[in-house]
């Protein structure tokens, strides 16, 4: 368990330091941070980069967080006792989702980087709803995202964004559990210690997580970049367009995230 705490602590330091730097920049300049033009097309920029190059540039940005996600996932599979996790996420439907959402929010991982953690939390707890809440809370309800939302956007947009995030985190899991009658997953649930050294088991677990999740994440990123290049640049520049974007992304992305999560379950 010490190894897991060290990894999570390092992640919080890494993400927290970066978030504070961005918040300080926005507070001092009064302007939003500039998007990476080699990842996403922006109005007035003539940089021509194809889908594959943009996807690679995206992974160059997120790889530290993705690595943390894989390490945390591997540690959860090896070090967290299934009985303990099942108890933490199994005490009542509302309480379990609240606990999972509160636990996931401070990690400040994007959905790609939180996906590996979801797979391990679900494997060890056999609770789909709270596992989804944990995964969705990391990118949508993390403290840095909430602060920057109010600093960068009109308060009506910020409130809409937070409301949609809250619905996604705390109601999606409940809805999915009611819609899908899933059998318990076939995974190790014993609290017995592995005969292998902990470090060896941990590294093997991380490798397994990476092999089954990273390719799917890569496919999702490629599709996202293709859509970003297909849409007209600046289509969501107006405040009305931003509201439509927030609602549209929530309505499309959350179901897709659930389907992707279920796909991880079957691997």
Description of the structure:
With 267 residues, this protein is mostly helical. The longest helix is centred in the last third of the chain and has 33 residues, at 198-230. The protein is built from ten helices and no strands. It has one domain (2-15, 57-209, 237-266). It has helices at residues 2-29, 51-79, 82-88, 93-104, 111-125, 128-140, 143-152, 155-179, 198-230, 239-266. The model is unreliable at 184-191 (pLDDT under 50).
State the end-to-end distance. 26 Å
From the alpha-carbon coordinates, what is the Rg to the nearest angstrom?
19 Å
- Overall 3D geometry? globular
Number of domains: 1
Short description:
By secondary structure, the protein is mostly helical. The protein has helices at residues 2-29, 51-79, 82-88, 93-104, 111-125, 128-140, 143-152, 155-179, 198-230, 239-266.
Features:
mainly alpha
Chain-wise SSE layout:
Elements: H1 2-29, H2 51-79, H3 82-88, H4 93-104, H5 111-125, H6 128-140, H7 143-152, H8 155-179, H9 198-230, H10 239-266
Helix pairs in contact: 1-2, 1-7, 2-5, 2-9, 3-5, 4-6, 4-8, 5-6, 5-9, 5-10, 6-8, 8-10
């Amino acid at each position: 368990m010490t190894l897991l705490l060290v990894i999570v602590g390092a992640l919080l330091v890494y993400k927290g330091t970066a978030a504070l730097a961005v918040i300080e920049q926005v507070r001092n300049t009064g302007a939003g941070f500039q998007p990476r033009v080699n990842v996403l097309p922006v109005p007035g920029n003539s940089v021509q980069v194809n889908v594959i190059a943009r996807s690679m540039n995206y992974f160059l940005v997120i790889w530290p967080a993705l690595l943390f996600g894989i390490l945390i996932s591997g540690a959860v599979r090896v070090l967290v006792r299934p009985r303990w996790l099942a108890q933490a996420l199994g005490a009542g439907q509302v309480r379990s989702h609240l606990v999972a959402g509160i636990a996931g929010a401070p990690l400040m991982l994007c959905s790609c980087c939180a996906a590996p953690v979801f797979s391990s939390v679900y494997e060890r707890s056999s609770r789909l709803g709270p596992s989804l809440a944990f995964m969705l809370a990391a990118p949508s309800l993390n403290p840095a995202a909430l602060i920057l939302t109010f600093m960068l956007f009109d308060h009506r947009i910020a409130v809409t964004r937070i409301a949609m995030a809250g619905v996604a985190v705390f109601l999606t899991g409940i809805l999915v559990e009611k819609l899908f009658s899933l059998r318990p997953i076939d995974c190790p649930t014993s609290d017995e210690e592995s005969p292998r050294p902990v470090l060896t088991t941990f590294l093997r677990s991380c490798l397994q997580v990476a092999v089954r999740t990273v390719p799917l994440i890569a496919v999702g990123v490629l599709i996202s970049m293709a859509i970003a290049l297909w849409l007209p640049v600046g289509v969501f520049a107006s405040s009305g367009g931003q509201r439509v974007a927030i609602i549209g992304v929530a309505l499309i992305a959350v179901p897709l995230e659930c389907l992707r999560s279920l796909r991880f379950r079957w691997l």
